[in-house]
Amino acid sequence: MRCGIRRFAACAASIALTVACTAAGLSTTIPSDTPTPVIEAPPSATSSPTATAIATDVSPEPSLTPTVTAEAQPTRPADTAVPPTPERPASPPPPATPVLETEIEFFRASTDEADPGETVRIEWAARHATEVVLYHLMPSGQYGNYWEVELSGSMDYPIPPTARNEERFQLLALGPGGQRADRMLTVVLTCPDEWFFSDGPDECPSSPAIRADGAEQRFERGTMLWNGAEQVIYVLYSDGGYPRWSTFVDNWQEGNAVSDPDIVPPDGLYQPVRGFGLVWRASSSVRERLGWAVNQEAGYATEMQRTSRFKYNVTYIRALDGGVWELGPEGSAWRHIPR
After folding, report:
1. What angle do CA 111, 116, 122 make, to 5 degrees?
2. What residues are paired with 106 via a beta bridge?
3. Minimal CA–CA distance to 326: which of 256, 234, 242, 248?
4. CA-CA distances (angstroms) from residue 24 to 21, 30, 145?
5. Across 261-265, average pLDDT
6. Nearest of 138, 175, 132 to residue 154 by alpha carbon
7. Which residues, other chains included, contact 195 with Cβ-Cβ below 8 Å and sequence gap of 6+?
8. How far is C-alpha 314 from the geometric centre of its chain's CA atoms?
9. Distance CA 237, CA 246 (A)
10. What is the pLDDT of the chain when averaged over all its residues?
11. Among 171, 179, 185, CA closest to 104
């Protein structure tokens, strides 16, 4: 910028304006005495028009009003995008329904001890169960009869007259989620019978003593017994073999051959006859194990009883001499109990 002496005042004003515009951040152009026209470009579709001032120093007289150049402003994009939908927080899951425990409140009988033939009342109550079943257990422990029952209730159970030792029941309650609850119930039975001999075993016999006609015969290596009530022949071996005793059905009838005349025993020994003889002649095993009879068959009044276990029972038979034959379970052993 050139300032003469005679134009000192105008020059000072221009300098002051330039400093003020610079401090305000605006562009300035020092005007000449004769401004040059500015050709403006047409505005674009996306931007605001920009004014551009061009100045020259040709004229010696400057203009007191400066030309301001405007800065370009950014164009706001069209509002075409869909604003995002704010995400809602997920709802918490509903609280889990608590599974109530399946249980049996009580399972009982009207009495702890009963007689065979007596009727007892069974009572029960279960909670939070979908199914309840009442079982009667057989003496073997296997399930017998059963009843689908309500959650709580009672039932009268007639004990069979032939039942012995105890009656057992089981209550089973099934609940949600595979739950299971069960309880056992035992009713002890009185023993209605006594053993036919003194010093019998400390358990209840299965029935009263069976009295019947009997027969007995001794052999070289054992004994034969006959019980008319059962029509069964018991063969007891003393040769150390197994089984220690066995049974055969007595198939001999009146009119059958009593003995075999072609079989001749040694002196002082005998061929068994009738039912004993039929079994002895028909079974070579029996014949070989027993040998010959050492005396004649003798009949007498006998008695018989068995234990009342569900399995492996012991049999007791009155002997000819008044003692007792004790036959162990399943042919396992035998012994003679003196009178």
Report:
1. 35
2. 125
3. 234
4. 5, 16, 108
5. 96
6. 132
7. 201, 205, 209, 305, 316
8. 38
9. 9
10. 84
11. 171
Tell me the β-bridge partners of 335. Answer: 326
**Is 80 exceeded by the pLDDT of residue 69?**
no
Q: Residue 17 has what pLDDT? A: 52
> What's the pLDDT at 94?
77
Query: What pLDDT is recorded for position 92?
Result: 78
Matching residue, tokens 């007191």? 64
- 146-181: burial string, b at 16+ Cβ within 10 Å, e else: eeebebeeeeebebeeebbbebbbbbbbbbeeebeb
Task: Indicate the helix (H) or strand (E) that contains 21.
Answer: helix 8-24
More confident residue, 3 or 223: 223
Name the residue with higher pLDDT: 98 or 199. Answer: 199
Q: Residue 237, Cβ neighbours under 10 Å: how many?
A: 21
Percentage of the chain with pLDDT > 70?
Answer: 74
Question: Rounded CA gap, 113 and 189, in Å?
Answer: 6
Q: Exposure of 286 by Cβ count < 10 A (0-12 exposed, 13-18 middle, 19+ buried)?
A: buried
Strand order in the sheet with 166-175: 113-114, 179-189, 166-175, 131-137, 143-149
| Residue 162 CA: distances (Å) to CA of 54, 165, 221 | 134, 10, 38
Q: For the chain, which domains are there?
A: 1-38+52-69 (no CATH), 103-189 (2.60.40.1930), 210-337 (no CATH)
